[in-house]
Design goal:
Largest sheet: 5 strands, parallel
EC number: 1.18.1.-
Number of helices: 11
Number of domains: 3
Helix content: 10-25%
Bound molecules: flavin-adenine dinucleotide
Strand order of the largest sheet: 3-2-1-7-19
CATH class of the largest domain: Alpha Beta
Cofactor: FAD
CATH superfamily of the largest domain: FAD/NAD(P)-binding domain
Protein name: FAD-dependent pyridine nucleotide-disulfide oxidoreductase
Number of strands: 26
CATH topology of the largest domain: FAD/NAD(P)-binding domain
CATH architecture of the largest domain: 3-Layer(bba) Sandwich
InterPro entries: FAD-oxidoreductase/Apoptosis, FAD/NAD-bd_sf, FAD/NAD-binding_dom, FAD/NAD-linked_Rdtase_dimer_sf, Reductase_C
Shape: globular
Pfam families: Pyr_redox_2 (PF07992), Reductase_C (PF14759)
Length: about 400
């Protein structure tokens, strides 16, 4: 068992394969847990409750292909076809938000007032994109988290002339790349010194700036958006340095917050996400959480919430056996995420931090490879358009190898 994993003794050896599992959330985490429970021979009832009307779908394409490809089908992004849920006897309650949980009675309440009992409750409600409260209510202002939001943005991008993107995080940068592919002029506004600086550091951020400038993006760093003006529809954006930018589209990409409002009054511990131990157990018995909404205790004892795709799969791999009263797999997991911007896949392996020492070992003016050093060891690797070389560093990162091992 991975160091520090705690399996609730009440479960071990107990046959939990018939427990009724209710999963709140209709995204990757929900779909993965349901699928893996069935694969692990769980035969009890499984119900997925989602506030979206769509089948569970994958979000990464929403800021990439779905936004800029000429045509696509919703089936391209669904995680599993409807028949999968039918064949596996997984009940989908779509378009049905959970509004409350009663952990004493082991029930949740849905928006239409229905109460649903559970033996085990899994919370996988993801995130809510942040908006700027001071922005007026104008057409042309978008956020991007859901399929419907992606479709709405795509529709307007088709006829837009110039977009201002507020925030150069991963979503902002990917939207910038997609809009450029659609020939929309893009002004990317970021208060930090460089895009992605708080995650990957300013040195790699500068390489990301270079990539976007080469594609014609007007990258404005060290400045924010003060005001959005228009008459029914966006017409102008005023930056914090007083500069005015004519625009007919504004995309707000300033991050998201955990979707936990519905848990108010439930007694569940929430602190920047649902507080969980290192196997996904929350502060209430038989209530679990995973994915973007969950703050799991990591190997060093810290609470950490991760907003990346592969983390969901890793957490599902741990949680599902625990739910069934079994021990979680023993594995050294090297965190991974990616971001596609133009033809460059940015990949990050390990846990690089903005204040690590960054060694850029390859740079051809567009593609790059950098190792991150902390306390003399390889903390991570970040590559732009260097997939093979990024993956090659996995064993060194997993072993906590000295940086000299990899720099050669
Ligand atoms: C545009 C975009 C691009 C991304 N690109 C990448 C990428 O390139 N690489 C990468 O590593 N990661 C990427 N990610 C992150 C990745 O998609 C997430 O880590 C993953 O989707 C998390 O899955 P989840 O199931 O925890 O949450 P989600 O996928 O957000 O699913 C949560 C679901 O719960 C529903 N819900 C919320 N509240 C309730 C309620 N009260 N009742 C019922 N249902 C509710 C939501 O509507 C949603 O359907 C991207 C995310 C986005 C939004």
């Amino acid at each position: 068992m991975p160091a520090g994993h705690r399996v609730r003794t009440v479960f071990v050896g107990e046959d939990r394969t018939q427990a009724k599992v209710v999963i709140v959330g209709g995204g990757l985490a929900a779909s993965r847990v349901a699928e893996q429970l069935r694969r692990a021979e769980h035969t009890g009832e499984i119900v997925i409750v989602s506030d979206e009307v769509h089948l569970p779908y994958d979000r990464p394409p929403l800021s990439k292909d779905v936004l800029h490809k000429d045509s696509h089908d919703f089936a391209d992004v669904t995680l599993k076809p409807r028949e999968f849920y039918d064949e596996n006897n997984i009940t989908l309650r779509l378009g049905s938000a959970a509004t409350a949980v009663n952990t004493e009675a082991s029930t949740i309440t849905l928006a239409d007032g229905t109460e649903l009992g559970y033996d085990d409750l899994i919370i996988a409600t993801g995130l809510v994109p942040r908006r700027v409260p001071s922005f007026p209510d104008l057409a042309g202002i978008h956020v991007l988290r859901s399929y419907d939001e992606s479709q709405a943005l795509r529709r307007e991008a088709g006829s837009a002339r110039r977009a201002v993107i507020v925030g150069a995080g991963f979503i902002g940068c990917e939207v910038a790349a997609s809009l450029r592919t659609l020939n929309v002029e893009v002004v990317l506004v970021e208060p930090q010194p460089e895009p992605l600086a708080s995650v990957l550091g300013a040195q790699i951020g500068a390489l990301v700036t270079r990539l976007h400038r080469a594609e014609g993006v007007d990258v404005r760093t060290g400045v924010g958006v003060a005001e959005v003006l228009g008459d029914g529809k966006v017409q102008k954006v005023v930056l914090s340095d007083g500069t005015e930018v004519e625009a007919d589209l504004v995309v707000v990409g300033i991050g998201s917050r955990p979707a936990t409002d519905w848990l108010e009054g439930s007694g569940l511990a929430v602190d920047n996400g649902i507080v969980c131990d290192n196997v996904g157990a929350t502060s209430a018995p038989h209530v679990w959480a995973l994915g973007d909404v969950a703050s799991w205790r990591d190997a060093t004892g810290h609470q950490a919430r991760v907003e990346h795709w592969s983390n969901v799969a890793e957490q599902a791999r741990v949680l599902v056996p625990v739910l069934l009263g079994q021990e979680p797999p023993e594995a050294v997991v090297v965190p991974y995420f990616w971001s596609d911007q133009y033809d460059v896949k940015i990949q990050c392996l390990g846990e690089p931090e903005a204040d690590d020492i960054v060694h850029v070992v390859e740079d051809d003016g567009r593609k790059f490879l950098a190792y991150y050093e902390r306390d003399g060891v390889v903390a991570g690797v970040v590559g732009g358009g260097m997939p093979g070389k990024v993956m090659k560093a996995r064993s060194k990162i997993a072993a906590g190898a000295p940086i000299s091992d990899i720099l050669g």
